[in-house]
Design a protein that fits this description.
By secondary structure, this protein is of the alpha+beta class. It folds into three domains: 220 residues, no CATH class; 157 residues, no CATH class; 148 residues, no CATH class. It has 24 helices and twelve strands. Strands 1-10-3-6-2 form a five-stranded mixed sheet. The protein is globular, with a radius of gyration of 31 Å. The N terminus is likely disordered.
Length: 546
């Protein structure tokens, strides 16, 4: 197998040859796929079209509607490619022989190949498609038996002798002439149907990426994970399979949905590089044994990292990590220090909170990545504060100015702080279901302490201040309905009546101070925000060790 050419550093391709447009018969394109002249690189997505979409495509062909163009990339690059398409085996190609990688048009050409060359294995197959000559419509059969005379299987189309033998059977039908005409029309349309094809000629792999992103009919970006999968593939290594294996190892603890690019950053560092995309691109320089070793190291470090996050920090899944790249740094720490001391564990806990509250990872650039790599090594060598040197407390302003929006970093931080404090429902005194509340698909446990409608109608507060982080607590949906739009001075009387001597404990567990409570009793929203933000700042400082 020949070596892959080095990825170019250019962002705007300097084409040695202009893209080659052509108009090709769809039957010819399907044949080229099966012969191995057109290949599906692994950075293309899996086949996802439904039976309805397949029928719609064939209906467009029959009506001579345009179905969009196809984008090919002719290259000698050795990329991992599918050896099957639509359950059909693709022929082997000659080594060092240019092939055409299909960049755009996978679903359309797969639908054509599947229906035309289906071997009739399962009646329920999406490729078991026929054409009704009477209704002039396509549909899916549910049997392997021969259909009625007026119905033609699409996998007869590539075989003229078989097709017209079947079509001849309509002679016994009362509307034989109309059926024959419909059949011949379908056959001719299929034989004559053409599609626009654009072929990119001998371009570097990363120059293909922006073209793919702009032309791809589904608007699906070609990510660096896809590119590096193609660039590092060998018969013994598949980057995506390795990443999936890593995620599978932490799935049971709720961390199986970590973004693949995040894992790739860790993989790059484990291979001897850095966290940045520039370092990631260097993965193609390594042989499969080196890459396999990096995969093992990354998997081991991710398992330790997830144990730390779930056990030591009590975080239930990757959804609650304020900044997902915190996992990248932690994974390198635990790769170098798989068995940290008690002091190191405490320093890592505090670093987690410092990095989150200070928003350090919101602007994590190449310079930060390089600095963090050096800091991790210093930490591994015994400098406990190496990771936290530049992480400062933002103070109360963040808890007033930041708004509570699901899946934003500081909303996650507030949610975790509340969850770790064992919140109870103010009206019922019952413990809040923290695990339910922390799943962001369910926002019913988070509500305004000062009701939104009341703030709008009475105080005329803007949405930005109404949705301030300091105005949110965990509260059951049923209790929120009781509060509705009542002013705090009103509904808090009910809270005092329900909780009695437990009131103080309930407020503390919801991170509400006496000062904040007093302001709320007077319907003083500004005073409440100031007091509550002070409490949240103090609690964050405790967790971060500031």
């Amino acid at each position: 197998m020949h070596k892959l050419a080095k990825i170019s550093s250019t962002t705007t391709p300097e084409l040695s040859k202009a893209p080659q447009p052509s108009v090709d018969r769809i039957e010819e394109l399907a044949s080229r796929i099966l012969s191995g002249d057109i290949l599906l690189p692994r950075f293309q997505r899996d086949f996802v079209w439904t039976k309805v979409q397949i029928i719609d495509l064939w209906d467009s062909i029959a009506k001579n509607y345009p179905m969009g163009s196809v984008l090919l990339w002719r290259s000698r690059e050795v990329l991992q490619s599918e050896r099957n398409i639509a359950d059909l085996r693709i022929a082997e190609t000659q080594e060092d022989y240019p092939v055409n990688y299909l960049l755009d048009g996978q679903q359309r050409l797969s639908s054509v190949c599947g229906a035309l060359y289906w071997d009739g294995g399962q009646a329920s197959s999406r490729w078991n498609v026929a054409y009704d000559l009477r209704t002039k419509s396509f549909f899916h059969l549910d049997t392997l038996d021969s259909p009625p005379n007026h119905q033609i299987r699409l996998n007869w189309l590539p075989k003229p002798a078989l097709f017209f033998t079947q079509l001849a059977r309509v002679s016994s039908e009362p509307d034989a002439d109309a059926l024959k005409q419909a059949g011949e029309s379908l056959f001719n349309r299929f034989k004559d149907y053409k599609i626009a094809t654009v072929t990119l000629l001998e371009m570097p792999l990363n120059d293909v990426a922006p073209i793919f992103e702009r032309i791809n009919s589904k608007g699906t970006p070609l990510t660096i994970v896809d590119l590096m999968r193609a660039a590092t593939w060998s018969g013994t290594f598949d980057l995506i399979d390795s990443i999936q294996s890593i995620l599978e190892a932490v799935k049971d603890k709720g961390f199986g949905e970590i973004d693949k690019k995040t894992v790739l950053r860790s993989f790059s560092a484990a291979a001897g590089g850095g966290f940045s995309e520039g370092s990631i691109e260097n993965l193609r320089r390594y042989d499969s044994l080196h890459l396999q070793d990096a995969a093992v190291k990354t998997k081991n470090s991710y398992q330790i990292t997830v144990d730390f996050l779930s056990t030591d920090l009590g975080i239930p899944s990757n959804e609650q990590i304020p900044y997902i790249n915190q996992i990248v740094v932690l994974s390198k720490v635990f790769r170098l220090v798989p068995k940290p001391s008690a002091k190191q564990l405490l320093a890592l806990k505090q670093w987690f909170w410092k990095a989150a509250v200070s928003s350090y990872f919101s602007g994590w650039n190449t310079g930060n990545m390089a600095t963090d790599q050096v800091a991790v090594r210093k930490f591994a060598d015994g400098e406990l504060d190496a990771l936290s040197v530049s992480l400062n407390n933002p103070g109360r302003v963040v808890w007033i100015n930041q708004q509570f929006r699901l899946n934003t970093a500081h909303a996650k931080i507030l949610s975790l702080m509340l969850a770790f404090n064992g919140p109870i429902d103010l009206l019922t005194g019952q413990a809040i279901d923290v695990s339910k509340a922390l799943h962001y698909s369910n926002s019913k446990e988070f509500h305004h302490f000062f009701p939104r409608a009341w703030l709008v109608d009475t105080k005329h507060e803007p949405a930005r201040r109404i949705n301030s982080l300091s105005n949110f607590i965990m509260l059951t949906a049923s209790s929120n309905k009781i509060i509705t739009n009542r002013p705090p001075s009103d509904y808090l009387k009910q809270v005092e009546s329900e909780l009695g001597n437990n009131l103080r404990s309930a407020l503390e567990r919801n991170l509400i101070s006496d000062e904040a409570y007093s302001a709320a009793l007077q319907d003083d929203y500004d005073g409440f925000l100031q007091a509550r933000s002070k409490t949240l700042t103090m609690r964050a400082a405790e967790l971060a060790g500031w």
